[in-house]
Amino acid sequence: MDCREALPLMHEYLDGGLKGREALALKEHLLVCPACRERLKQLEKVEALVQAWPQQEVPSGLTERIMQALPPERRKQPWWLWVRRHPAASVAAVFVLVMMGSFISLWNEDTELLVKGSDLSSVVIKGDTVYVPEGKTVAGNLMVENGKVQVDGDIKGNIVVIDGTVAMASTAHISGQVTEIDQAFGWLWYKMNDWVSTISQAK
Ligand SMILES: [Zn+2]
To answer: Which residues are found with C-beta within 5 Å of the ion, ligand 1?
Structure first.
């Protein structure tokens, strides 16, 4: 068995549907393949993540849209045929797995301050800290990666801080939600939700 054959078996195993000869074959492969052992470990984490993910009504046709959103070379790979037959939660898990390689490496390399928002004219950046000064208003969402946020003014939207902190003065007013994400997995979760909602809104 090679790694490509092992992957769908791991999913079957996590779904509790792997028996007999296939279970044995997977076990044998895992004994000799550290890469797949690591992958299974990550899959188990993703599985736990998906379990903890709030149950949502899955819009009809979501699976098809996910398949369409994938690059064509991915769609040609045979194990995606297996994905097609599985429920949307599994699709989400598989998607995270596929993206995980690049996400994790991005996570490790990307330690520079990143500030995103639709209105950054009132935002002041000093060193690794992003300030919203008192009396100033940010008209929209604010996302900061790898930095601190000090809010003394108003934010008319949500704040998402990834791998950083947010501090609010008594003068601060934030109309939306404040989300702090400190771990790669939390970030993945956030991305997954973000991505799934993008897909479900797409026509
Ligand atoms: Zn392997």
So the answer is: 3, 6, 33, 36
